[in-house]
Fold each of these.
Amino acid sequence: KVFYYHSGEGKEVVGLATVSKTHFPDPTATDGDWVAVELQAGKALKKPVTLAAIKANSKLKSIALVRLSRLSVVPLTKDEFDEILRMSS
């Protein structure tokens, strides 16, 4: 399972998805060794979890989304994943 995060407008976790195809060369990339994955939509969260709320939560202070905000994909531990789910209810 993965969270779907709006990185442009909103900057918030809005839903759940699953990876339906693992990494492959990004067909839209014009340079470098970019990769992509395919996602299958899951369900919307009851309440979006904003980046500001994530940054304010001491349990999430060390996740890559907070430390390296330009990343598109970041790993989470089970506890971090569960905390964001808790925040969305």
Amino acid sequence: MASKKGIAVTVAILVGVVAASFLVYLLPEDTTMKISVSDFEHHLDITKERATMEVTGIDDSFKKLMNGEIEPDEYITIAEISSSQINSLIIELTNSGATQEWSESYVNYIGSLKKLNDKITETVVVANLIDDNDTDSIDEILSKIKQLETESFDWAKKSDDSRP
């Protein structure tokens, strides 16, 4: 006859095998986030609205920085958050799986968002210069910021013009 210890070991092994086989079916194979877009026009419109809100917020904060209403460190924190949000929008558009007819419009708007991120980076440079009391080269950077705004606007217009 089998001993109690032998039966317990056999049952434990069988339970382990059954549990392991269930885990294979229960654990997801791919845990990456996927965005499923079916209305590309609406998706692009929503993304533009979100980007516009970020632009409005960062522009208002930059004006406050230039007027001395907020400290450079506070502005840099706001700018980093805005830049992160813009990066999220870029990733979202890139991973949306736009159809062939929408891909050019999406690519152009991604270009607009990248220029916007470049603008935010330059505003952080200005904030750092203000923090260091080095205001000599700020005018040069401000003209570069205006140029990046124009380039971002041009990319957005290209995006609108290339919509199907």
